[in-house]
Design goal:
Oligomer: single chain
CATH topology of the largest domain: Rossmann fold
Structural class: alpha/beta
Number of helices: 18
Order of helices and strands: HEHEHHEEHEHEHEHEHHEHEHEHHEHHHH
Shape: globular
Largest sheet: 6 strands, parallel
CATH superfamily of the largest domain: Glycogen Phosphorylase B
CATH architecture of the largest domain: 3-Layer(aba) Sandwich
Strand content: 5-15%
Radius of gyration: 21 Å
Number of strands: 12
Length: 394
């Protein structure tokens, strides 16, 4: 054991002796959606007096308050300088960010999507991911991809098959569809269409977003637009250089639609009768509800965002594909007329892409308690029995 490891071990023992076993976890986020991914785990642990969460944005500290806005004012947001000086037991992220923590921490990575975009970074990485102490995989497909790409070893002890805590609420009864629609002020007699494009200068939002919204609204549907965090970022690479909130709000006010607030799309997915997307993780998440999906195919988007073509095929066979704004309203109408079309394909894809949905939060919580070396509190069997070993991959 080298000098640094010995020093960190001594520091950890001293910290725990002084703090009577309190565990500190640092959550580091690049965008609001990163917090949306980890928030179910935080909510499940926040009432444990032995655990203290801190929050930082090491890459964009000036936006930290905005990044964590959905967490409310009670979150303890700290600077990256202060974070680097503190002793943490766990470092929790939902993106490939890395804050130097000289005093050490168990580093836990949660995936923020399943769409296969930037596949050489997130789906089958060219670089090693062996520096992470825990990798909480959403599905076995990606776990296998990491091994095949030599990003992790076949017998990696860091790899844990967990699922996606964020989408548990879509299947576990947490969300009440009618209550959400009432809260949003939606007309109960109008079908609800959610348009949730991905971010990119090549996304459908840039190519046809305004016309699409007008056409679907004119067809008589209640339209909700959920913008990706990236589409709200300045710069051509992210949003095409357009202030989409400012551009779309007047259109939606005029047509009786609305712009979805917050970074968690799940309540809006629950409210929708049909989802329109291009190639976003949201489109795959919607499969869990087994409702009609309209896909806008854009070859430029697929090429420019490095999408693994396996995911393009999955999206294609589970949705109705269009290539222009003029086709979208008719596709929505056909989807509502026969909502069971492609139901079998949707169910099959959802089962493959989301490991044991509805119980992922319990497994992620179990993994985090193990990572910070703390016994879990007494809990219902669904949590206590949730830890699942990675299946044999040979």
């Amino acid at each position: 054991m080298n000098v640094l490891k010995l020093a960190r071990l001594a520091d950890k023992k001293l910290h725990r002796w002084r703090s009577e076993c309190e565990r500190r976890i640092l959550v580091d986020s690049r965008r609001p959606m990163n917090y949306a991914i980890v928030s179910p785990v935080i909510r499940a642990m926040e009432n444990d007096p032995r655990v203290k969460f801190y929050f930082a944005s090491s890459e964009d500290p000036g936006r930290a308050n905005d990044i964590y806005r959905d967490g409310g004012p009670a979150l303890e947001i700290i600077s990256r300088v202060r974070a680097a000086s503190m002793r943490f037991d766990g470092y929790l992220v939902a993106d490939l960010i890395w804050l130097s923590l000289p005093r050490g921490a168990c580093r836990v990575f949660m995936f923020h999507g399943v769409a296969g975009k930037y596949s050489q970074v997130y789906d089958a990485p060219r670089r090693s991911m062996r520096e992470w102490d825990r990798l909480l995989f959403i599905n076995e497909r990606r776990l296998r991809n990491f091994i095949a790409a030599n990003a992790i070893d076949p017998d990696s002890t860091a790899a844990r098959l967990v699922g996606m805590p964020k989408v548990d609420c879509l299947v576990d009864g947490t969300l009440n569809r009618e209550a959400i629609r009432l809260r949003l002020g939606l007309d109960p007699d109008r079908p609800v269409v959610l348009y949730a494009p991905t971010w990119s200068a090549s996304s459908s939002l840039n190519l046809m977003g305004e016309e699409l919204i007008r056409r679907v609204s004119e067809a008589g549907y209640a339209v909700i637009v959920k913008l990706h965090d990236g589409s709200l970022m300045p710069g051509h690479f992210f949003s095409g250089g357009v202030d989409w909130r400012a551009k779309l709000e007047p259109i939606l006010r005029k047509t009786g639609g609305q712009l979805a607030a917050g970074s968690d799309c799940c309540p809006f997915l629950m409210a929708a009768d049909v989802l329109i997307t291009d190639h976003s993780s949201v489109g795959f998440e919607y499969l869990l509800l087994d409702r009609p999906l309209v896909r806008i195919h854009s070859p430029d988007l697929i090429a420019s965002t490095g999408v693994n073509l396996d995911y393009v095929e999955i999206m294609s066979r589970t949705s109705m594909t269009v290539t222009s704004a003029s086709q979208v309203a008719a596709a929505v109408e056909r989807s509502l007329a026969d909502p069971g079309l492609r139901s079998d394909e949707r169910k099959t894809a959802a089962a493959e892409l989301f490991y044991r949905p509805g119980t992922a939060t319990a497994r992620a919580v179990a993994e985090l308690y193990e990572a910070i070396e703390l016994d879990r509190p007494e809990a219902p069997p669904a949590i206590l029995d949730s830890q699942q070993a990675v299946p044999a991959l040979n």
